[in-house]
């Protein structure tokens, strides 16, 4: 058992250039304590008559200042927790802070650079590397990804669903067993045999989350996301299994409704945007108080799910994310205050070991046999589990007689034998159901036949009308776009004319350009759109995409794409990907060369052995055991080549992971582009209707 307080870290997000410095300072006091001082600028502090404090000081295990990189954050925060999970303890890392302070960046990572990948992908990579190294146990790993929004849980990993709204995802509910353990019904556990599979699942979840979100419903700032890695391990031949769960939690934004500025009582009274974070705080307060017997875990789904992580069987770590500029001073202080309370909570992590069910079955079998023997001793007859054919026939007869007997006093007496009593009940139920069903069947058949035909005709007509309306809308949007393009061209023309009036050479080239734009190149665009749609289709879970667009919609998509900021990111990543591919290719060739060289050197050694053996036949005493400097040299050469082979091979493996990650990032950016377009398109359509 490991008893320790929750570890609490702080991370300060890099400030933009315009945001003023000097608001806070970091002081590394000792190895395991750092303090963060937040200095309230005079103009803000002056606004409060009853609070003259100008600086606030908070202690953390460690503070990651603006320059801290993702690998450093992983090494100090996540790696120790991952190690515990590998050893069989539960672990939780959660990020808490206002929207925009870097929670998602810290937990999942940035969307652009490979080096920006966050705690989840790095932890997966670390865990799978460790598992590979350890051949003394058999491991299985699963992942799950839960989003909680408005007290409802959603499974982000359900592959059967193509979400377009959060409600399309399967709803997850909480169940409590008699031992008060929490179980999540409908949350799928997906097996992930290696890093690549696990990363694919992470991206699937993130994509589902992104698609489910609309500009009207920015769920991500108000929902909690819990990515869980489940590890189980067993030594071959042993009956005990170790199971552990590692929760990586991206909480909802902690901002409060009333932004009033800095002031003691105002801060504590301000209301949360997010009710479940309010309940989280209540749980934390209750846990931090000594002698509290009741902890209100059940008030919200999130506190129920994280129950073990808070005051229970778990190694828990919190990261307070801070966006420390002048406007956010009050939120930052409240985040730090929350962190200070969390730091008081003690958890007791225990090894999660349980006995193999097979061993249990063997024990139970023995117990059953013992009981049977005892029963036989008491009743004087040996009993099998099943009734014999004869016994059943006799019971059927008894039942029949009982049912037909009109005497209200008649009874069905089968003796003190549970098997016989059960048999009678089942038999009677069957008889009853049978007579009920045959009655209902007759009735319903008649009604159904009449309904069917009339519904069919109505549906067809409605569908046609809908399509017609949709096409009308599309044409209108396209006409609008065309008008805008035309106006742009006219403006350009007008300017040109103003600069060089009479120079019709320019005019001509311009009009040629416009022509070109309308005809052949738009075909090229279309082709590109198709390519794009193909590439999106490669991810099986995103299949609901562009293929279904009408031609007009595709045209509009091309123009939209051209002007969208994300296309630059996609382009950049494409270039990077090309580079990495080339690097991987040349590295692969080099690895092959080295392998050939090693084989060649080995061949030479064998050759020398043969020669030596031949010489030994001629002069037996001397040659065989003599030290051979040439062979020795060949061996050192081989060793060196092997070393370089290993480094290159490892680099190649790293490149592979990076390439896969980049590919996933690109797919994600493309899906986002597509989604932005859908939103824009539907907005245009509504505008036109109005
Ligand atoms: P939150 O999830 O808390 O709302 P995000 O993680 O989405 O905040 O961060 C908001 C923005 O700031 C994102 O664009 C993110 O890339 C950027 N960001 C956050 N933390 C860092 C950091 N440590 N380094 C660089 N960029 C960051
Ligand atoms: Mg976020």
Keywords:
56% helix; alpha+beta; three-stranded antiparallel β-sheet; binds magnesium ion; binds adenosine-5'-diphosphate; 690 residues; Kinesin; motor protein; Kinesin_motor_dom
Residue-averaged pLDDT: 81
Strand pairing plus helix content: what structural class? alpha+beta
Question: What's the name of the CATH homologous superfamily of the domain at 2-42 and 52-354?
Answer: Kinesin motor domain
- Reported CATH architecture of the domain at 2-42 and 52-354: 3-Layer(aba) Sandwich
Q: CATH class of the domain at 2-42 and 52-354, please?
A: Alpha Beta
CATH topology of the domain at 2-42 and 52-354: Kinesin
Number of strands: 17
User: What low-confidence regions span 5 or more consecutive residues with pLDDT below 50?
Assistant: 259-270, 501-546
Rounded to the nearest angstrom, the distance between the terminal CA atoms is 66 Å
Named once each, the bound ligands are: adenosine-5'-diphosphate, magnesium ion
Query: Strand content of the residues, in percent?
Result: 5-15%
Report Rg.
36 Å
Helix count equals: 19
Give the helix level as a range of percent.
55-70%
Gross morphology is extended
Largest sheet: 12 strands, mixed
Family: Belongs to the TRAFAC class myosin-kinesin ATPase superfamily. Kinesin family.
GO cellular component, one term: microtubule
Domain Kinesin motor: 5-345
InterPro entries: KIF6/9_C, Kinesin-like_fam, Kinesin_motor_CS, Kinesin_motor_dom, Kinesin_motor_dom_sf, P-loop_NTPase
């Amino acid at each position: 058992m490991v008893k320790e307080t929750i570890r609490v870290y702080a991370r300060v997000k890099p400030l933009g250039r315009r945001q003023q410095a000097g608001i806070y300072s970091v002081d590394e006091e000792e190895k395991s304590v750092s303090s963060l001082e937040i200095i309230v600028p005079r103009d803000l502090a002056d606004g409060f008559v009853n609070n003259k404090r100008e600086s606030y000081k908070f202690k953390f295990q460690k503070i990651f200042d603006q320059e801290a990189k993702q690998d450093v954050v992983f090494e100090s925060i996540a790696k120790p927790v991952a190690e515990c999970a590998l050893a069989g303890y539960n672990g939780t890392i959660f990020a808490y802070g206002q929207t925009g302070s870097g929670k998602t960046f810290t937990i999942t990572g940035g969307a652009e650079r490979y080096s920006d990948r966050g705690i989840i992908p790095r932890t997966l990579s670390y865990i799978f590397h460790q598992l590979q190294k350890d051949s003394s146990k058999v491991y299985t790993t699963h992942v799950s990804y839960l989003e909680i929004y408005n007290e409802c849980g959603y499974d982000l990993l359900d592959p059967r669903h193509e979400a377009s709204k959060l409600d399309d995802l399967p709803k997850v509910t909480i169940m409590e067993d008699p031992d008060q353990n929490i179980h999540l019904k409908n949350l799928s556990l997906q097996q992930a045999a290696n890093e690549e599979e696990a990363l694919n699942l992470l991206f699937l979840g993130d994509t589902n989350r992104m698609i489910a979100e609309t500009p009207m419903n920015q769920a991500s700032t108000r929902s909690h996301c819990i990515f869980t890695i489940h590890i189980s391990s067993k030594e071959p031949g042993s009956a005990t299994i170790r199971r552990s769960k590692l929760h990586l939690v991206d909480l909802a934004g902690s901002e409060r409704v009333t932004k009033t500025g800095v002031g003691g009582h105002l801060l504590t009274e301000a209301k949360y945007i997010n009710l479940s974070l309010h309940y989280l705080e209540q749980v934390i307060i209750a846990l931090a108080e000594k002698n509290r017997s009741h902890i209100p875990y059940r008030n919200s789904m999130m506190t129920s799910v994280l129950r073990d992580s808070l005051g229970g069987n778990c190694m828990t770590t919190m990261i307070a994310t801070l966006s420390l500029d002048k406007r956010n001073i009050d939120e930052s202080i409240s985040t730090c205050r929350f962190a200070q309370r969390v730091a008081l909570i003690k958890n007791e992590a225990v090894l999660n070991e349980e006995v193999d069910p097979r061993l249990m079955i063997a024990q139970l079998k023995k117990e059953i046999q013992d009981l049977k023997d005892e029963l036989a001793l008491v009743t004087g007859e040996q009993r099998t589990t099943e009734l014999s054919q004869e016994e059943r026939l006799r019971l059927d007869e008894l039942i029949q007689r009982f049912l037909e007997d009109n005497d209200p006093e008649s009874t069905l007496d089968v003796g003190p034998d549970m098997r016989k009593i059960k048999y009678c009940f089942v038999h009677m139920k069957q008889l009853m159901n049978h007579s009920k069903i045959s009655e209902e069947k007759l009735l319903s058949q008649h009604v159904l036949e009449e309904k069917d035909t009339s519904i069919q005709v109505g549906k067809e007509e409605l569908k046609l009308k809908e399509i017609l309306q949709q096409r009308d809308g599309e044409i209108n949007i396209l006409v609008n776009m065309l008008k805008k393009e035309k106006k742009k061209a006219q403006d350009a023309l007008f300017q040109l004319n103003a600069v060089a009036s009479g120079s019709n050479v320019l005019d001509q080239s311009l009009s040629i350009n416009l022509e070109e734009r309308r005809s052949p190149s738009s075909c090229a665009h279309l082709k590109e759109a198709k390519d794009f749609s193909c590439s999106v289709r490669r991810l099986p879970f995103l299949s609901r995409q562009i293929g279904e667009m009408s031609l007009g919609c595709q045209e509009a998509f091309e123009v939209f794409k051209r002007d969208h900021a994300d296309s630059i990111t996609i382009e950049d990543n494409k270039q990077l990907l090309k580079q990495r591919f080339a690097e991987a290719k040349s590295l692969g060739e080099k690895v092959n060369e080295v392998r050939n060289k090693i084989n060649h050197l080995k061949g030479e050694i064998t050759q020398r052995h043969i020669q030596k053996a031949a010489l030994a036949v001629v002069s037996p005493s001397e040659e065989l055991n003599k030290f051979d400097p040439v062979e020795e040299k060949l061996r050192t050469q081989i060793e060196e080549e092997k070393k370089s082979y290993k480094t290159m091979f490892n680099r190649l493996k790293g490149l592979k992971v990076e390439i896969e990650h980049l590919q996933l990032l690109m797919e994600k950016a493309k899906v986002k582009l597509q989604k932005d377009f859908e939103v824009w398109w539907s907005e245009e359509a509504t505008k036109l209707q109005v």
